[in-house]
Amino acid sequence: MLPTGDEDKNLGTGKVQAFFPIWLQKSWEPWKTYGGGGYWINPGSGNRDYWFFGWEVEREMSEHLTIGAEIYHQTASERGGDSDTGFNIGAIVNFSEMHHLLLSAGRDISGSNDFSYYVGYQLTFGP
């Protein structure tokens, strides 16, 4: 990631972060599974480089609905910080080939973030 915030104002590190991933995927309709991991270079005061791993399984229920679940683990990204392991369940609602609603909710099994959720809109283009 390119630095976009001012470190003096606690808006990022002011340094370039880099992620080096390895991902795998296997599909057999209507199922899909994918995941992997990688190493984050995380420079900055108090930061440390860290590992991230995750795996996801999803099933297309119909042309309008896909559901899935994931589990992930991240080692500490700060000196004195904690590792984090958690899971999410989610769905993709396809209104059309271009318009999609993304939903996800989950919690940590261990770590500092007890509950998280995500709601997003995706607009896709293509031939």
Offer a few descriptive terms:
127 residues, mainly beta, seven-stranded antiparallel beta sheet, globular
Describe this structure in words.
0% of the residues lie in helices and 61% in strands. The protein has one domain (7-123). A seven-stranded antiparallel β-sheet has the order 1-2-3-4-5-6-7, with no helix packed on it. The two termini are 29 Å apart. 2% of the residues are buried. A hairpin with a 4-residue loop joins β5 and β6 (99-110). With 127 residues, the protein is an all-beta fold. It is globular.
Strand content: over 45%
Please identify the oligomeric state: single chain
Spans of at least 5 consecutive residues with low confidence? none
Cα shape: globular
- End-to-end C-alpha gap: 29 Å
List the secondary-structure elements in sequence, H or E: EEEEEEE
Helix percent band: under 10%
Structural class: mainly beta
How many helices? The count is 0
Overall pLDDT: 91
- As laid out across the biggest beta sheet, the strand order is 1-2-3-4-5-6-7
Radius of gyration: 17 Å
Give the structure's gist in a few sentences.
The protein is mainly β.
